[in-house]
Each structure stands twice: as structure tokens, then as C-alpha cells.
Amino acid sequence: SKLPLFSSCQIQQLMKEPVLQDKRSEHVKFCKYAAELIERVSGKPLLIGTDVSLARLQKADVVAQSRITFPEKELLLLIRNHLISKGLGETASVLTKEADLP
Length: 102
Fold this sequence. Notes:
The chain is mostly helical. The chain has helices spanning 4-7, 10-16, 24-42, 54-65, 72-85, 89-98.
């Protein structure tokens, strides 16, 4: 095909790729314009249920504009508890020691 970016779903994959927190707003814009480009190239609108729906893009934009802050120790405790719940007690123990967790 002359348009491998579209025919092999490469552009859709780029729209789903995880994004660095400081690049979220750029990714939202990319997704918006990529969806528009897909519609123009294919000649048909994207299905409402697809991952690149307008509602998803709007939600992603809200998330992109939100800055989330948290205490570092809280995050480390959350990670430690997750490790324990997954049966990784030894790893959790090392984290507890290295991060000086209670």
C-alpha cells in the first residue's frame, strides 16, 4: 500500500502510545489531528466506539491540563503495598529499607 501509516494501523498505534506527563497536551492535539486525518484519508468518520472518539479526546485533554502532585513517601508506600500484594515481599522489604519507610 502507498499509505502504510494508515493501512497497517501505525497511526492508530501512535495515538494509543503512552505519553510522558509533560507531553500530554501535545499528545491530545496529535490525536485530534490524527483522527481528522484518518477521516479525510478514509473518507468516512471514525466510529463512535473507537479509542480515538471525540469524548476520549476531550477526557484526555482534561487530564492533560490537570497537574497531579503527591507526597513522595505516600507513593513509595503505595508501591511497597502493591509489591506485597503481588507476592514480592523481598523486593518490598528492600524498598522499605532504601526509602526509609515506616
